[in-house]
Design goal:
The complex is a heterodimer.
Chain A (H helix, E strand, L loop, with lengths): L1 E3 L4 H13 L8 E8 L6 H13 L3 E6 L3 H9 L3 E3 L4 H13 L7 H4 L13 E3 L8 E4 L4 E4 L7 E4 L3 E7 L2 E4 L9 E6 L3 E4 L2 E4 L12 E6 L2 E6 L2 H7 L1
Parallel strand pairs in A: 1-2, 2-3, 3-4, 5-7, 6-8, 7-9, 8-10, 9-11, 10-12
Antiparallel strand pairs in A: 11-14, 12-13, 14-15
Helix pairs in contact in A: 2-3
Chain B lengths: L2 E6 L7 H14 L4 E5 L7 H4 L10 H5 L5 H4 L1 E2 L6 E4 L12 H14 L2 E5 L6 H8 L3 E6 L3 H14 L4 H4 L7 E9 L1 H5 L6 H8 L3 E6 L2 H8 L11 H13 L16 H9 L1
Parallel strand pairs in B: 1-5, 1-6, 2-4, 2-5, 6-7, 7-8
Antiparallel strand pairs in B: 3-4
Helix pairs in contact in B: 1-12
The chains are: A alpha/beta, B alpha/beta.
The complex binds adenosine-5'-triphosphate and magnesium ion (MG).
Magnesium ion (MG) binds next to helix 1 of chain B.
Chain lengths: 238, 272
């Protein structure tokens, strides 16, 4: 969800209209607040107010992205994680190049002195215990590798790829920052939900023939593909 | 070294109190000094199942609030001199339990007893979290049906994250065991309930025992007799074997079954 400035009453009104139009679309889906155009939202109390208002509407906010240092701190104070990396990182780099050229009217946002962008580091996360119902595992700057079963009602979230070596009954969301090249690899598929860069499929439209198969999940244009990894499965499949 | 064992489940009515009573009596029968604590504040079932409800004067809450000494509240079992019961209050609610109070009582009990068995309330809220917080081991009581298995899975998540052992760096995690109760081979054979293998695959913890559905359980609890002390019943026998496994004995798993032969061996292999 991208904010343009601190939210006002009008924001909540139009949000409610949207939610009425598509009541189930967002419910319980994990949500990130994009602060790129809301640099004025820095007070933890305001952020908490926003989070409370969103959660009241059954929107599960768990993080912010494109936050300034102050915003990231405020986000941490209200229990949100601050996501970095992802596809915005190279964009920022090129914007910085432009700033060096003489520019008569710098954007107010860019005028704020900022440290050089942190190098794009990835930190992968490995979990070798079962992920239980009700637990959420987040890799906020890289790949997530799970060695063990993932229960129904458990949630895996990564900015990069997700690998599951074990029976997968939960929800997995890869490329959460919008990385459309992210993939999900799954040793034994029985998932409730699979998503890459926000595009998702639920168990209802995953197809019974893939159940318990080893698969990879990736984006092909605007289509989320779920392909068996095994060649023989591939042939008998299609 | 004394051990604190929590008997927990998430879902209500699956057989926690029955199991806590049977396990503590079984441990005491083996000669271990054992105390069983009722954490289900406000409901007070344990002392009934243990047959000592008329002997309760002071309770766990009185001790926590400093109104009674631990010695005054502990009730010695009349059948097994190695067994004691710490009953709970029927008039207070769960807020009367404090984390510091629980810790203090457990520390004091550790000095005297080999095993401290905690009968948890249902749910995953405060009461259940306090019952599991200081545990060294957990017996996760599960019925072979989907909702019970799912709740047990959530509880396993809490055991691995919201307990002292999970929070302390360097401590071994809580050792969790699965106790499958109210196992009805006929209904499983007919596909109405889940079989042992399906449950084990989801929960992925070692199997402590399988307790059959049995009218002996209700009969025993009506007369205030922990079911292990009823040596004729199959359920009593199954609890006895579960207790032996809890203390580290290797006993082959025997499950009455209307399924394929060879299942026992495979199950036994899994628990090793
Ligand atoms: N193996 C069994 N066979 C038949 N009945 C059983 C068995 N185990 C437990 N029961 C019955 O199930 C009911 C609930 O048992 P119990 O009180 O031990 O569950 P609980 O998990 O402690 O419940 P609560 O969540 O309310 O504390 C009781 O009536 C008990 O007699
Ligand atoms: Mg009970």
């Amino acid at each position: 969800m991208r904010l343009a400035g601190a939210p006002d009453d009008q924001f909540y009104e139009s949000l409610d209209v949207r939610l009425q139009q598509t009541p189930h679309f967002f419910s319980d889906a994990p949500l990130i607040i994009d602060l790129d155009q809301a640099a004025d939202l820095v007070d933890p109390a305001d952020l908490q107010w926003l989070v409370d208002n969103l959660r009241q509407r059954d929107l599960s906010v768990f993080g912010v992205q494109n936050a300034t240092a102050d915003q990231a701190e405020a986000a941490r104070a209200v229990g949100l994680i601050s996501l970095s990396g992802g596809r915005d990182a190279p964009l920022r780099g090129s914007r910085r190049e432009e700033e060096r050229k003489p520019d008569p009217a710098p954007e107010p946002e860019a005028a704020a002195p900022q440290a050089a962008p942190p190098p794009r580091t990835t930190t992968n996360k490995l979990v070798s215990t079962p992920v239980r119902s009700g637990q959420t595992v987040i890799a906020d700057r890289g790949d997530l590798v799970i060695v063990g079963p993932v229960s129904s009602g458990a949630e895996l979230i990564a900015t990069g790829n997700i690998h599951i070596y074990g029976h997968m009954r939960g929800r997995a969301m890869a490329g959460i920052n919008g990385d459309e090249t992210a993939r999900i690899f799954c040793q034994s598929l029985d998932a409730e939900l699979l998503a890459i860069a926000g595009l998702y499929r639920t168990s209802e439209n995953l197809g019974a023939e893939l159940r318990r198969k080893s698969v990879q999940v990736y984006l092909e244009g605007e289509r989320l593909r779920v392909d068996p990894l095994d060649r023989t499965q591939n042939r008998s499949g299609q | 070294m004394s051990k604190v064992i929590v008997v927990t489940s998430g879902k209500g009515g699956v057989g926690k109190t029955t199991s806590a009573a049977a396990i503590s009596a079984g441990l005491a029968q083996q000669g271990h000094k054992t105390v069983v604590i009722d954490f289900d504040v406000g409901l007070r079932n344990l002392d009934m199942i243990m047959g000592c409800e008329r002997r309760v004067v002071f309770d766990f809450i009185n001790v926590i609030q400093g109104d009674a000494k631990l010695k005054q509240a502990l009730i010695k079992d009349r059948r097994l001199d190695t067994l004691s019961i710490l009953p709970t209050s029927q008039t207070r609610d769960k807020d009367a339990l404090t984390s510091e109070g629980v810790e203090k009582v457990l520390e004091e009990l550790r000095e005297e007893f080999d095993y401290i068995v905690c009968d948890s309330p249902a749910g995953i809220e405060r009461g259940a979290q306090l019952a599991m917080y200081y545990a060294d081991e957990a017996v996760v009581v599960t019925n072979p049906e989907v909702s019970s298995v799912r709740d047990s899975d959530r509880v396993l998540g809490l055991l691995n994250s919201k307990t002292k052992r999970a929070e302390e760096s360097g401590a071994d995690p809580i050792k969790s065991h699965l106790l499958l109760t109210r196992y009805d081979a006929k209904r499983i054979g007919e596909g109405e309930m889940m079989n042992v293998e399906d449950v084990l695959e989801i929960l992925a913890i070692p199997l402590l025992g399988v307790i059959p559905e049995s009218t002996a359980v209700l009969r025993a609890s009506n007369v205030g007799l922990p079911v292990v002390l009823d040596d004729k019943s199959r359920a009593g026998k199954a609890y006895e074997e579960a207790v032996a496994r809890l203390t580290g004995e290797q006993i082959e798993m025997r499950i009455e079954s209307e399924e394929r032969p060879g299942l026992f061996q495979r199950l036994f292999g899994r628990t090793a």
